[in-house]
Amino acid sequence: MASNYSRKSGSSGSRRTASPRRSEGGRPYAARPSSGYVPSGHGHNSSASRRRPQQPDPRLRSVTVRDIERATRQKRARQTYRRRLVSLGVAAALVVVLVGAGVFLYHSSVFQIESVSFNGAEHLTNEEMVALADIDEGATLLNIDVSALRENLLEDAWIEEVAVHRVFPDSLEVDVTERTVAAVVEVPTSDGADTKDWAIASDGMWLMPIPKKGTEEAERTSERVYEDAAGALHITEVPYGTQPKVGERCDDANVNNALSIVDGLTTELADRVTSVKATETESTTLTIKDGPDIVFGTDEHVREKERVCLQIMEDHPEGVAYINVRTVDRPTWRAL
């Protein structure tokens, strides 16, 4: 009967508290919540969860200003490096293109020289200049050897300086500076029976023998040579044995002394000298226009000797026939 009662009680609406279920060992089962929610303020576990510290997100980290600046510098450095690499690549490509183009033009007939002009050449004819230049046929403005051209022209005694200019697309201009005729030296011929005129520059360079007018050689000589010779100082009475050579410096002491004296004169006396007798150094004598012969001697103390000569002529307005200033501090003269 007891078992039936129990079933009835369980099925009825009685509010009597049911006895807790027991496990097989006699202990009551622990109550288990039906879900993960635990009401606030109830139980020990709820307080512990409020006090537990919150863990940081592992994806986040602190960054300083120094780190940002370092990263910025590194980024800029990488960008600069890449730009430089690109620039170097472009420059290298341009160099290759330019070198290739240069090689092509150098060996091609582009810029072939069609005309050559010589400026400043007065004592040499155009035919002589062309022969001296010796420019290869088919030469171009790019492959012509300018150094060789200059050396060829400087071999001539008349030419002192050379400047070469390329005028694209097909012209070459050559500017030359010539030596001038400082004097005409009357050099004794090998048999001593006559003299031959030689043009000489102020630096002692033998320029050329001057052909006599009317000869075949004279027809091939520039007219400017004869014009200069007519107005140039003449050095006469040169000792026998003087042997001039075109393009070489004069090694005759008498001629060089005469040139040095005339080159050192600075007053009106220089323009009045018409000839110099160069028999020997100590007796070198100047012949002046409308004035006396002056035994000048060596080229020492040229300015002082010149001053003494002018003073003597000024002190004797009636005229002087002869002046000797070989010893400048003891001059002698003879009045008319």
Automatic annotation (TrEMBL):
Gene Ontology biological process terms in this record: cell division
Membrane-crossing segments per the record: 85-106
Top-level taxonomic group: Bacteria
InterPro entries on file: FtsQ_DivIB, POTRA, POTRA_FtsQ_type
Low complexity biased stretches: 1-17
Location(s) in or outside the cell: Membrane
UniProt domain POTRA: residue ranges: 111-179
PROSITE patterns hit by this protein: POTRA
Ranges in a coiled coil: none
Pfam families on file: POTRA_1
Primary residence: membrane
Annotated region (Disordered), positions in chain: 1-61
CC terms in the record's Gene Ontology section: plasma membrane
Keywords, sorted A to Z: Cell cycle, Cell division, Cell membrane, Membrane, Transmembrane, Transmembrane helix
PANTHER family xrefs: CELL DIVISION PROTEIN DIVIB (PTHR37820), CELL DIVISION PROTEIN FTSQ (PTHR37820:SF1)
Protein name as it appears in the record: FtsQ-type POTRA domain-containing protein
